[in-house]
Design a protein that fits this description.
The protein is of the alpha/beta class. Helices cover about 45% and strands about 15% of the residues. The protein folds into two domains: about 190 residues, 3-Layer(aba) Sandwich (Rossmann fold), CATH 3.40.50.720; about 230 residues, NAD(P)-binding Rossmann-like Domain (Rossmann fold), CATH 3.40.50. The structure holds nicotinamide-adenine-dinucleotide. Nicotinamide-adenine-dinucleotide binds next to α1 and α5. Its EC number is 1.1.1.22.
Length: about 450
């Protein structure tokens, strides 16, 4: 198939590379010339394991090209897949400026029949509105498809190629057949729906995941106070097949470009339709409080943060990505700095050049430099690199061996044996000290 992917971000770049790898002829368009220049030079703007190799392999084969030029991008294309950003607006509704700019460009540059698949996460009703706008001059010129994406950053290629399911919202048999052919390599259920249901599935899925995280964090907070152990509680409830073990890891709450934005969008949708969506408001509130709670723990242990040196390990909103959109780490750093603390931060892949003056922290070359002379360390991203830290060296370098672990990366009893004051989420230090059975 001759495909144009619009948007060379986390979703667009992965989609374009995988389609090219499957043998399609792909042109990827972005309106950011710097981004396209970097990609062409082999220096991808997003960190995603396996992606650089896949992009360069297909660029060499000429099955994948990059451009900023609409005429080049849409010439002879059978399918245009739109993967531009839909960031949250002030009122919680997604900002659809980029999407509508693309739609207007499509209308101006495409004359023949074409399929337009919306991969961006868009509010319910968007595909219908896009179809009305694009077809107002000639009915049937643009065939609109809702094709929401469920990949996770950090494992995006694998998720794209082995999804749990595909959801396709379409209106014509031709669109249905084309999507069946395009996603033929996938071994997963494909659900065909109307546009609105497909759009709703994406939001509902993300809001459910967000809800599960806020749920387990609430249980974890209760465990800390009630002398229970979240490791055992999560295991015990996760083995119930009606619940399942995924997304039952307590921590500092969800971040990134999807869960917060999409949960906010559902709240906004509820307001539009006059439906009570206080459940999702509460999910967001709990998520915010989880970031405050970790700073309070630090403050309590250090008897105030003024003048204290705090090492922050990890800035990305999760491991294996360089994305810091809505990263809990940045909100936590902000609070520490506001309370008078001095932050020295390290992340294996995040570019800290612009972030450090903005958030008022000192960047470190590695984790050991970050913890040197620190009064406490706070672990905020679950990078593999941190699993491999020489913990005795970390302890020796610190002013005092206080490690607040927002990701529950280490075994509490081992940390205690190593001489740390180790504060994970969902289990108190007293519980670890008094426990006769392993805690993790
Ligand atoms: N990131 C994820 O993990 C993920 C997962 C599933 C769904 N989504 C959804 O996919 C969409 C894209 O997300 P992302 O993380 O890839 O965003 P992104 O910000 O990484 O990429 C968007 C790209 O679109 C480009 N763009 C903006 N306006 C343009 C225009 N008029 N013409 C051409 N290019 C334009 C930007 O320059 C940018 O490179 C969003 O709606 C998001 O909610 C994201």
């Amino acid at each position: 198939m001759r495909i144009c992917v619009v948007g060379a971000g986390y979703v667009g770049l992965v989609s374009a590379a995988v389609f090219a790898d499957w043998g399609h002829d792909v042109v990827c368009l972005d309106n950011d010339p710097l981004k396209i220049g970097r990609i062409r030079a082999g220096n991808l703007p997003v960190y995603e394991p396996g992606l650089p190799e896949m992009v360069s392999r297909n660029m060499e084969k000429k099955s994948l090209r990059f451009t900023t030029d609409w005429e080049v991008a849409v010439k002879d294309r059978e399918l245009v897949m739109v993967a531009v950003g839909t960031p949250p607006g002030e009122d919680g509704h997604p900002n659809l400026t980029a999407l509508w700019n693309v739609v207007k460009s499509l209308k101006a540059s495409i004359r023949d029949h074409v399929l337009v698949a919306i991969k961006s996460t868009v509010p319910v009703g968007t595909c219908a509105a896009v179809s009305r706008f694009l077809n107002e001059d000639r009915e049937g010129r643009f065939d609109i498809i809702s094709a929401p994406e469920f990949l996770r950053q950090g494992s995006a290629i694998n998720d794209f190629m082995s999804p749990d399911r595909m959801v396709i919202g379409c209106r014509t048999e031709a669109a249905r057949q084309s999507m069946k052919e395009l996603f033929e390599p996938l071994d997963c259920p494909v659900i065909f729906t109307d546009w609105q249901s497909s759009e709703m599935i994406k939001y509902a899925a993300n809001a459910y995941l967000a809800m599960k995280i806020s749920f387990i964090n609430t249980i974890a907070n209760l465990c800390e106070e009630a002398d229970a152990n979240i490791y055992q509680v999560a295991l015990g409830i996760g083995l119930d097949r009606r619940i399942g073990p995924a997304f039952l890891k307590p921590g500092i709450g969800f971040g990134g470009s999807c869960l917060p934005k999409d949960t906010k969008a559902l709240v906004a949708l509820g307001e539009t339709y006059g439906v009570n969506v206080s459940l999702f408001q509460e999910v967001l509130r709990i998520n915010h409080e989880q970031r405050v709670r970790i700073v309070k723990k630090l403050e309590a242990r250090l008897e105030g943060l003024a003048g204290k040196r705090i090492a922050v390990l990890g800035l990305a909103f999760k491991a294996n990505t360089n994305d810091v959109r809505e990263a809990p780490a940045l909100a936590i750093i902000h609070q520490i700095v506001q309370a008078g603390g001095q932050v020295v931060a390290y992340d294996p892949v995040v570019d800290m050049k612009d972030l450090s003056p903005l958030y008022g922290f000192t960047p470190a070359e590695d984790a050991y430099q970050a913890v040197t002379h620190a009064d406490a360390a706070v672990l905020l991203t679950e990078w593999d690199e941190f699993y491999g830290l020489e913990l005795e060296r970390v302890r020796e370098l610190m002013n005092q061996p206080l490690l607040v672990d927002g990701r529950n990366l280490f075994a509490p009893q081992v940390m205690r044996q190593l001489g740390f004051h180790y504060i994970p989420v969902g289990i108190s230090e007293e519980h670890v000290a008094n426990s006769l059975v392993p805690t993790a």
